[in-house]
Amino acid sequence: MGQPPLPEEARRAAEVIQRADIVIGIPSYNNARTIGHVVRAAYAGLAKYFPQLTAVVINSDGGSTDNTREAVLSARVEDSHLMLLSTPLLAAHRLSFPYHGVPGKGSAFRLVFQMAKQLDAKVCAVVDSDLRSITPEWIDLLIRPILFAGFDFVAPYYQRHKYDGTITNSIVYPFTRMLYGVSVRQPIGGEFGVSARLIRRYLDRQDWETDVARFGIDIWMTTIALAEGFRVCQSFLGAKLHDAKDPGTDLSAMLQQVVGSVFTLMREYAPVWQQRAGSSPAELFGFRFDVGLDPIFVNVDRMVNAFRRGCDELGEVWETALDHSTLGAVRALAASPVENGKGFHLSDGLWTDVILEFACAYQKHPIARSMILRSLTPLYLARVASFVRDTENLVAAEVEEKIEQLCVTFENLKPRLIARWNRDFIPGGSGSPQGDAAPRATNNAKLEVTHD
Question: Which CATH number fits domain 8-285: 3.90.550.10, 2.130.10.120, 3.40.50.2300, 3.40.50.720?
Answer without folding.
Answer: 3.90.550.10
